[in-house]
Amino acid sequence: MKPRLAPTSPKYAGLPETSTTVNKIWNQPGTLTQPPRWPWGRLGLLIVSTTIIGCALVIAATLWFMHRAPASRLARWWVPLATTIVQSAPEAVMINGNLPKAVSKSASTILGLAADQGATGIYSNEIWQGYAWPLSSNGWSLGWRSTWTVETPQVLIPILSAPVSLTKTVTDPATSFIFFKVKDLNQAPVTLSKISELSNPHSVWVVGRAIDQPIIIPRQLLPGSGPAWTASDTLENYWRLDQPVNLKPGAGVLDDRGRLVGLLDQDQRVWPVESIDAMLKSVIQQGSLERPALGVRYLNFTQAIKADQTVSTGLLIGAAGDQLAVELKSAAEVAGLKKGDLITKLNGQTILTDLYVTLQSFRPGDRLTMTYVRDQVTKDVEVVLKARRP
After folding, report:
1. Distance (Å, rounded) from C-alpha 147 to C-alpha 128?
2. Tens digit of each residue's pLDDT (9 = 90 or more) over 163-216
């Protein structure tokens, strides 16, 4: 049989497009139809994509469950060991008062510090040493130093009944606060507040905890003591509650917005936490702490004067008993400050608050211009702050 040739072949050159020969060759129906095929490539791509998305959803759901699941669901998977911080339950026991939601939410973050229970995992309110408050998402927490005894400088701390290591502790040279880092602690950090920022300057909530839930008690916050000679480098100004509470050291004092105002010590004194706000960055990022030191004792005239007296506003350098008004070799002595000087300004700003708190916004090595009055003459002097370490 003679083979068919394409219409462009030279044999057909010059033929009209309606040539009968061409139509017979190329206009036969169905000669170019492809047979049906299964889309295996697309089906395989669909299966792979569905598998990847499903695995991602399972991983996300597992992480969410581990983060949000209460202690009771996870406790059966681990064995408790050693000294323990126990995560609080979401429920709260409130004693006498209407509980704001923000206070209840913050109270759920409090941690109970228990004594060594070995592998028994049996806890009770009686064996607890105190409480702690989470400060960061990477495990740093705040506690009261008396809860950490010399006999247990290094301990294992189970969280949610899981053995978790205490990796680092940092003591505060100016206060009785202690910072400690706990491995794998995943708690929402508490927000700090200043006493001067309280919406109602005297209404607070004292938060401790029982084994299964926080305990929240409404109280009034009162000044701890009258005017006194105060150290510039040590937290000595505390507050008191109008009525005592039966809670261990480290119990928190919260405002109506759920912010942590202070910690309760073993003598029912409330120590404000505002002084650690400027130190947190150093503790969390570097795991160390040093405070600026001036080296004077003083009396705040804004607190000491009577209503019918007219005196200068400022901080009078002085001391009582055998205390030193100006510490030897301190930044203040190097700058020439003496007993009887009245400090009025710091870097041009009038000092109206506690000098200890004011200094916390500076760092060791900073140069400050201090204005003071001596023998009714106003003078300026440059002071280079020194470092105070644990």
Report:
1. 9
2. 456 778 888 999 999 998 877 777 788 999 988 888 766 889 999 987 778 899
Joined together, the tokens standing for residue 189 give 């950090």
How large is the C-alpha radius of gyration of the chain? 36
Checking phi first, is residue 288 left (phi over 0); if not, alpha (psi -120 to 50) or beta? beta
Name residue 153's amino acid.
P
**pLDDT tens, position by position, 278-297:** 888 888 888 888 999 999 99
The mean predicted confidence, pLDDT, of the chain is 76
Which CATH number is correct for 291-388, 1.20.272.10, 3.30.10.20, 2.30.42.10, 2.60.40.10?
Answer: 2.30.42.10
- Residue 178, classed as helix, strand or coil, is strand
H-type alpha helices, 96-220 = 101-107
Q: Domain locations in the chain?
A: 77-286, 291-388
First CA to last CA across the chain, in angstroms?
107
- Say what the pLDDT of residue 139 is: 84
* CATH fit for domain 77-286, picks 3.10.450.70, 3.40.718.10, 3.20.20.70, 2.40.10.120: 2.40.10.120
Global pTM exceeds 0.90: no
CB atoms under 10 Å from CB of 274, counted, come to 19
Backbone angles phi, psi at 150, to 5 degrees: -65, -30
Residue 89's pLDDT band (cuts 50, 70, 90) = very low
Q: How far apart are CA 340 and CA 240, in angstroms?
A: 31
- Contacts by residues 317-324 (CB-CB < 8 Å, ≥ 24 positions apart): 317/341, 317/342, 317/343, 318/229, 319/229, 320/228, 320/229, 323/229, 323/297, 324/297
264 vs 254: CA distance, rounded Å: 11
